[in-house]
Amino acid sequence: MTTDKDYELFKKKVKAKIGLDLDNYKEQQMRRRINQLMQKHNVSNYPDFIKLLDNDSSLLQSFTDYLTINTSQFFRDTSVYQALEKELLPDLISNGGVIKVWSAGCSIGAEPYSLAMLLQEQAPKGNWRITATDFDVNILAKAKAAVYPENTLTNVPKHYRQRYFTAQGHDFALSPQIKSLVQFRQHNLLTDKFESGCDLILCRNVFIYFTAETQAALVSKFIEGLKPNGYFIIGCSEMIMDPARYKLKKIRPAIYQKIE
User: Fold this and answer.
1) What is the pLDDT at residue 254?
2) Which domain holds residue 47?
């Protein structure tokens, strides 16, 4: 039997333990996910689950991975990557200067590496850099290793797959050339300083887990870090209500541009 009081105490202990403030997440959705994990480990209440997390470091890491929902694929959502390839990146490249890209909530690295392939094809000697961040240090280690199961490569164009991936047992290793083009670091969207002076920011399929208030605060901070006329991309199942409020205009589903 779990109570609201138990859950409030549980949230405080989780914040102290892993630095994740569950107050910013949609409560019903988050409690359902946590309860599913508790059932999996035959735990019926929050106090006992905290004790289990205290005594099992591997479970604590699994719990962190589970809460931060690390799923991704290369070139996820074809329409977004078509817009990037044919419109957004050519526009940024034509402007000259350094192109600064931030992939926030990058998970296993499929998104920033997909962008690196596109930029490498379009501007192989161009002046651009990609920063990729995530809360979960374990998942960042996987991103840096850049070895992927085949199901994450489903949407990779054939010529990219042949050029940039090498079979490694049942998996596929990304080329060192593309790996070298992305800089990864740990980052907490809720507490850490945001990147600034960005031409392109992607934060995809992250907002859906946050409360409306937290979503609004994050969008404001992202747009502060975006240059005028820069692009901000969210998940295809997400939407920014009243984009003009944030000095944004919607140019495609999930794609917004900062108004000067």
Assistant:
1) 95
2) 4-68
